[in-house]
Design a protein that fits this description.
47% of the residues lie in helices and 3% in strands. The chain contains 4 helices and 2 strands. A two-stranded antiparallel ribbon has the order 1-2. It starts with a helix and ends in a 5-residue tail after the last strand. The C terminus is likely disordered.
Length: 128
Amino acid sequence: MTSFVLLLTAIGTPWAVITLIGFVRCRGVYDPDALQVFNRRSRGGVYWYRAGWNLRATAAWALGALVGLLAVSLPSYEGPLLSLTGGVDCSFILSGRVGGIVYLALSPERVSHRVETGQEPAHAESGV
């Protein structure tokens, strides 16, 4: 069970960091109608990106998750990057930092969309 939780943390941390960056960029204001596109089984909207995938966020998450897996310390597996941390499992810290830095490097601009409810402009960066 511990191994599963460590792996899940190493893989999930970059996703959480990328989502948090998107939240900060849009100041917490989203287009609620555009968030329901998938639930309505339709397509399009400000968060649709490329066929429903935010490729920049996905690439940043994948790289962050890979670094996390390479730095994890499990009873049955020790990643090759573990020697850089003196044998201490810092996989979640490394994966979150790498995912966040790569995401910021790949998407430095802020894309704004006007929300029809009259609120502040929403940002299309909501994560993976």
